[in-house]
Amino acid sequence: MKLNRYLIPVLAALTVASQALAAEPFKVGYIRVMDDAQAIAAYEGKLYEKQGLDVQLVEFKSGTDLIKAIVGGQLDTGVLGFTNAASWSSRGADLKVVSGAQRGYHALVVRDDAGIEKVADLKGHTLASQKEGSTADVVLKGVVLKDAGIKPEDLSILGVSPQVAVQSLVGKRVDAAFLFEPQASIAEQIAPVKQIYEIGEVWPFPCMVTITSGETLKTKKDLVWKSLDAQRQAIELLQQKPDAAAKLIAGYFISEPTLKTLKHGDVPREKIIADAIRTQTYSAALTPKDLSRMQEVADIMQAQGTLKTRDGKPFDVKAIVDLDWQHSRKL
To answer: Which residues pair with 97 in a beta bridge?
Structure first.
């Protein structure tokens, strides 16, 4: 009897703690760009629910803020640029890349009146991109400009959000912008601009990946894998039924039911977003070629000085990649 008297409150406390843990939502971070559409579509399409997950979708304005939340334990997983994981891991953060998400689409759009026909023509002009150290910034400076034979200092680069970049094109404050979708498509609809380059066509790379912390992967592995299963289903929806997917996610990118365009009047937002989805290449798997390209990106970051290892040695991408879920699903 004495044993039971002491065990009962302990067991009751454990039961309460277990129930609290089970009731706690699984938190997925995202950024409001088409690259993260699989997380949004999985949420709006109730694909997380079908996996038995109570997901809270949390929006962030930047990959840096999102990765901070993962490192700090406020998020379970997030869809964001691989460069964030590499940068923070090089400083000791326990992070894991657990799946692919989207292969890099970054379009260079220019104003019709800017006289820019090719990347090399950007010299002396003003370009809106994202902040220094971001995935867009890394590939812009380390691939796009380098391949064109010009240096970052040959033009004026403004680090702003994609939304501000579009507004800057409309307001003639910049001559060009390096944009994700759907902002690239939106810019072409509402401003006198044209696309002259898209990095995914000439230098494909795994731009967005799903990231978690080593601790979360260890303590919530089954939940992390269920979330990846849901996002994989969302990717299949995006690839196979872009019109249906657009109905789920269009409101995240265009607040009004229609978008007033220069050439076609009012266009339903679902059409704009469906067309933007079709420009994307989504993949839950990371291939050996993807891993090789990720290593190239890390090497570029080290050369630029945005990634520094403690021992000064080259950063090894394989150290932060965990493909157990991918292998279990035979992707």
So the answer is: 211, 321
Distance, CA of 243 to CA of 229 (rounded, Å): 22
* Mean pLDDT lowest among 51-55, 131-135, 293-297: 131-135
Domain ranges of the chain: 23-103+206-254+282-328, 107-202
Q: Which residues pair with 103 in a beta bridge?
A: 206, 281
Three-class secondary structure of residue 194 per DSSP: strand
Domains 23-103+206-254+282-328 and 107-202 share a fold: yes
Token pair of 41, please? 């579509």
The CATH code belonging to domain 107-202 is: 3.40.190.10
Q: In whole angstroms, what is the distance from residue 323 CA to residue 209 CA? A: 12
Helical packing angle, 82-89 and 288-304, nearest 10°: 60
Report the share of the chain in percent with pLDDT over 90: 86
pLDDT level of residue 133 (50, 70, 90 thresholds) = confident
pLDDT of residue 243: 98
What is the predicted pLDDT for the residue at 41? 98
- Domain 23-103+206-254+282-328 - what CATH class? alpha beta
56-93 per-position pLDDT tens digit = 999 999 888 999 999 999 999 999 998 999 999 999 99
Task: Quote the CA–CA distance of 173 and 105 in Å, as a whole number.
Answer: 24
Got the DSSP string for 19-47?
Answer: HHHHHSPEEEEEESSGGGHHHHHHHHTTH
Residue 260 exposed, middle or buried by CB count within 10 Å (0-12, 13-18, 19+): exposed
Which pTM value belongs to this model? 0.90
In 3D space, the residue among 183, 157, 182 whose CA is nearest the CA of residue 170 turns out to be 183
